[in-house]
Amino acid sequence: MAYVTPVNSRITDAVTQSGVGVLAQAPAMAMGSVYQSAAHSLSIAYENAVQAQRHASISAQAATNQGVIQVYSMGAAASATATAKIAQSDPLKSALVLLVALKALERI
Known about the structure:
With 108 residues, this protein is mainly alpha-helical.
């Protein structure tokens, strides 16, 4: 019960109870706001991931198209020669050449 005042005690009790109600609901409202903000941030992250996948797919398709265009623009003998050279290459030798080149660049 509120202190005795010239104001009606029922009014002071109603104001006190509404203030207590606001204070009691504050944590729930705060957590609701936090959850809503987290959900919004997560949805933006998913949108960005989808957009990045779309761009990567478009880039991969463009690179494939350019490769096919280059293959079709070469003569048959040139493409056969290039394919034979690639098939006969030694991956260990290529890796060694790259390693030596990287070591030479480190010294510069």
